[in-house]
Design brief:
alpha/beta, 2 domains, 12 helices, disordered N terminus
């Protein structure tokens, strides 16, 4: 959930790099339940591939390649980069443009369609891609896995709640396992307090402004890209100061919630000119108390979760705790990667994905493909 992060509002794709030699690539289009056409690409796909991995993006405006990096290289196209690694290992991949977005140069945005995005039709768009990937007259994959980033895991889980067939594997990157309410409440009312406590490098119970200057960028509050607002007028944050901050930000959370719930569900969020969704989607973050992990538990599926320990959006300890409450231990694997953020890059929120971790995730998909081929 990336509300308010201005850098993400303009993340669009204008470039791509080639499909690995020998792989097949194919454009496809499917119709969602309400008739809207969703476009995408399948790569590395022979007839009836052993395994196809469907990529599911998080919060933002994304086409199939999902640009979410700050390196200035093609690796900023995080889904395209990771998909290429999977294809090189013989795994088919499926990526799609979100509703209201169409890949091209320039990228086409349909604000009316974006303004109509709801929790239900985001799920239904994914369901249409999933059906096509499995269908004999579509890609015809013998097995299917999901790779979901951040909010994307919530949409995968809602497929499970709807009764969709279970996939072979679900891989998460910075994936929310708590409820939407818990995630946004933490981002608004707890993230700064958590970050100030982490910035206390000598663990003496007081976070000095010098510790803030040295450390805040490598905490979840580093997502804001500023230091000065975290300086305390007295020169240091004590326990009572952090408690007071929590109280102020909790009140701010309640104000945002009231403002959100005052809008009609079909109103464009945040407004018509800059719409990224309907208010129904935004309101869901204040009212949906169903843990994502509990929804995923309806599938008898292996779940592999990857987090960076500086994640600014979905802190690893909270998401893993929720996952362990609801998912059987024999089906759950968790990985916390030091000094990496929400997109498993060196930045607290942006990619590109660390190359070694990207290869590790691609290896997971390849192992699932091999297992699928066994009788």
């Amino acid at each position: 959930m990336l509300k308010g992060h201005k850098r993400l509002a303009a993340l669009i794709l204008l470039a791509a790099f080639g499909t690995p030699q020998g792989a097949r690539a194919g454009e496809f289009a499917v119709r969602a339940t309400d008739g809207i056409e969703i476009h995408g690409v399948a790569e590395g796909a022979p007839a009836r591939p052993r395994l196809a991995v469907i990529f599911v993006p998080g919060t933002g405006i994304y086409d199939r390649d999902t640009e979410l990096g700050d390196s200035g290289t093609p690796r900023d196209l995080i889904f395209k980069d990771l998909a290429a690694r999977m294809v090189a290992r013989g795994v088919a991949t499926v990526r799609y443009d979100m509703r209201g977005v169409r890949q091209g140069a320039p990228l086409a945005l349909d604000r009316a369609l974006l303004a109509g995005r709801t929790t239900s039709n985001i799920r239904d768009d994914l369901a249409a891609v999933y059906r096509w990937t499995r269908a004999p007259d579509g890609l015809g994959a013998a097995c299917v896995a999901f790779f979901a980033h951040s909010e994307g895991m919530l949409h995968v889980a809602r497929l499970a709640a709807q009764g969709a067939p279970a996939p072979t594997l679900v891989i998460g990157m910075g994936a929310g396992m708590e409820s939407p309410v818990d995630i946004v409440r933490w981002q608004i009312a707890e993230r700064d307090a958590t970050s100030l406590l982490r910035a206390d490098s000598d663990r003496d119970g007081t976070t000095t402004n010098e510790e803030v200057r040295a450390n805040i960028a490598r905490t979840p509050s580093g997502v804001h890209g500023v230091v000065e607002p975290y300086f305390h007028p007295s020169g240091a944050w004590k326990a009572e100061d952090i408690a007071a901050l929590r109280a102020v930000q909790s009140a701010f959370y309640e104000k945002l919630k009231s403002e959100a719930l005052a809008h009609a569900d079909d109103a464009p969020y945040p407004d018509g000119a800059k719409a990224t969704s309907s208010y129904e989607w935004w309101k869901s973050w204040f009212v949906d108390e169903e843990p994502t992990a509990r929804l995923l538990a309806r599938w008898p599926t292996s779940i592999s979760l990857h987090y960076g320990d500086t994640d600014s959006q979905t802190p690893a300890e909270l998401q893993i705790s929720a996952a362990k409450v609801h998912l059987p231990p024999e089906r759950l694997k968790t990985h916390v990667h030091p000094d990496l953020g929400h997109t498993l890059g060196s930045h607290v929120i942006l990619g590109p994905i660390d190359a070694a971790i990207a290869d590790r995730i691609a290896d997971e998909a390849a192992a699932a493909a091999e297992a699928c081929a066994r009788p």
